[in-house]
């Protein structure tokens, strides 16, 4: 690891403020296991939940919620789950990508690489993506609990403070 990477990690915030947005026509807060997993993993890592919502698979509603949440001054990260597959109702990437100031293609690439080790070529069905809107990082994860666990435990929890450090400039 380079010395600048180590320096950035050392100066990164240790406590992040995050919101969770589940994209689903059928989930409720009670049966949204992927959203619950994100919340518990992030809380265990010492981060603070600001807000958790469920939004239907409607691009205009998704975009509206993303714009509203990322406009808040007290948010570092917006973690979204659901709507990233290829079914006709999966429209999260189309709703979110045009809102991003900067895309982070490495997130989707890394997620699919790690996912391939677990599920093989079916990983190509995922359109997971990430980017930055203003100073808020936005991550669009698949809806499956296994995919969320992989992304949160192997990528996000270890690297989010470092990413937030960079997103703040």
Protein described:
The model has no long low-confidence stretch (mean pLDDT about 95). The protein has a single domain (about 5-165), classed as Molybdenum Cofactor Biosythetic Enzyme, Chain A. It has a six-stranded mixed sheet, sandwiched between helices. It is built from six helices and six strands; from the N terminus they run H-E-H-E-H-E-H-E-H-E-E-H. Helices cover about 45% and strands about 20% of the residues. It has about 170 residues and is an alpha/beta fold. The two termini are about 20 Å apart. Helix 1 packs across helix 6 (about 145-165), helix 2 crosses helix 6 (about 145-165) and helix 5 runs antiparallel to helix 6.
Shape type: globular
Q: Into which percent range does the helicity of residues fall? A: 40-55%
Question: Helix count?
Answer: 6
CATH hierarchy, class:
Alpha Beta
The biggest sheet, with number of strands, parallel, antiparallel or mixed sense and barrel status, is:
6 strands, mixed
Alpha-beta content class: alpha/beta
Radius of gyration: 15 Å
* Total number of beta strands: 6
Question: Low-confidence stretches at least 5 residues in length (pLDDT < 50)?
Answer: none
Placed side by side, the strands forming the largest sheet appear as: 2-1-3-6-5-4
By CATH, the superfamily comes out as MoaB/Mog-like domain
Query: What is the helix/strand order?
Result: HEHEHEHEHEEH
In percent, how much strand structure appears in the residues?
15-25%
């Amino acid at each position: 690891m380079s010395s600048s990477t180590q320096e950035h990690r050392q100066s990164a915030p240790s406590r992040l403020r995050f919101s969770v947005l589940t994209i689903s026509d059928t989930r409720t807060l009670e049966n949204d296991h992927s959203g619950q997993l994100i919340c518990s993993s992030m809380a265990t890592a010492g981060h603070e939940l600001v807000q958790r919502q469920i939004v239907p698979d409607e691009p205009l509603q998704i975009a509206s919620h993303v714009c509203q949440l990322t406009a808040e001054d007290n948010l570092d990260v917006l973690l979204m789950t659901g709507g990233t597959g290829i079914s006709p109702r999966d429209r999260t990437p189309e709703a979110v990508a045009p809102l991003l100031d900067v895309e982070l293609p490495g997130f989707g690439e890394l997620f699919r690489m790690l996912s391939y080790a677990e599920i093989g070529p079916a990983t190509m069905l995922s359109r997971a993506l990430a980017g930055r809107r203003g100073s808020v990082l936005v991550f669009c994860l698949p809806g499956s609990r296994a995919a969320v666990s992989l992304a949160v435990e192997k990528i996000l929890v270890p690297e989010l403070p470092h990413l937030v450090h960079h997103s703040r400039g």
